[in-house]
Amino acid sequence: MTDQTVEQELWGGETRKAVENFKVSGERVPAPVVHWLARIKAAAARTNAELGLLDPELAERIASAADEVAGGQHDDQFPIDVFQTGSGTSSNMNANEVIANLAGDGVHQNDHVNMGQSSNDVFPSAVHLAALAEASDRLIPALEQLSAALAAKADEFKDVVKAGRTHLMDAVPVTLGQEFGGYAAQVRLGADRVRDALGRVAQIPLGGTATGTGLNTHPEFAQRVRAKLEQSTGVQAGPPADPFEAQANRDALVELSGALKVVAVSLTKIANDLALMGSGPRTGLSEIALPELQKGSSIMPGKVNPVIPEVVLQVSAQVIGNDTAITIGGMQGQFELNVRVPLIARNLLQSIGLLTSAATLFAEKCVNGIEANEEVNLRHAESTPAIATALNMEIGYDKATEIVKEAVASRRTIREVALEKGVDEATLDRALDLRKMVRPS
Fold it and tell me: Quick check: 145 and 360 in contact, CB under 8 A?
């Protein structure tokens, strides 16, 4: 079999009807979903041959054709808009028609290619497997790369003392390394949250056919297909906890999207912090220097902007928006079937892809190149009135408060005012040691 051109349409009447009926966005079903749908069709054909339900020669032609589709050779043969019938029936019929035509004479799109299947179980199974594979193979490694980059900076900056800030106001000192260590942990925990959801995403409704009862499929069909998919792809799909639960809702995908939203929230906090710490160079905080990647202004010479944090912030906003749509889609399961699967697939796969790219860019084009301005950080640490907190144990909260208020009003240091109010130098030396202050335990 040879690859086909767009002019040589391999689809049939049902695909043509869907193309005509669903002129909505111009955006197609995500390619990974199509590829996994084809992998299921290939494994199903081989399984049905093993079970004596399908002629072996015909089954192998179907499987070989489906393998081509799974390999991305015929992506242009899947023209249906992603905003289509809520079960994904149109895309399943599209796949059946394309595979049947590729397989050649005597192959029927429903009787043979779709044997033992329904759109209601194979299409959501393909979505689950696509999300499982994309999250496992792409997103989690990207998050691990970002977490490692942040952890490396935490080690590099472990002795850089700076002012802490709470409520955007001066607080007791910390180290820049401690801040970056917190960022690394945020991303690492985000990856853990994604992993935690994947076990339930791996429970696919395959074998339930139309309503979860398994009508028109062999009792061993689903288990054998899952085994073949694992053997050929390494992706471990499991049986559903309950076939009717698996058919009627997409809670596992909603849960995964929720984990992605948490990752987006974490990245928003980190990107905002880095942009603020890098603000300046003269009138901002200027505590770190972000890599200079491109001109920041078409009119202001020499201006440099935090472009990668800005990309991350926009991606995070989109992922949070996608999660809202997925949440609403997850609510739309009436009785035995959720009927917003294409919407969920579109937004979930987009979120995984966006976070994968953003995390990779963040690590490689921003975090790896960050430099600390040690002089500025130390000056800020020494200037924060909150260092008076360390005097509480020596002189009490109320007297320390008086010192802070006078120091701020007179624009003098805590040490100067404390000496004036009778605190001895030995006490100040002991209490106001910044390096000890950031590691009191």
Answer: yes
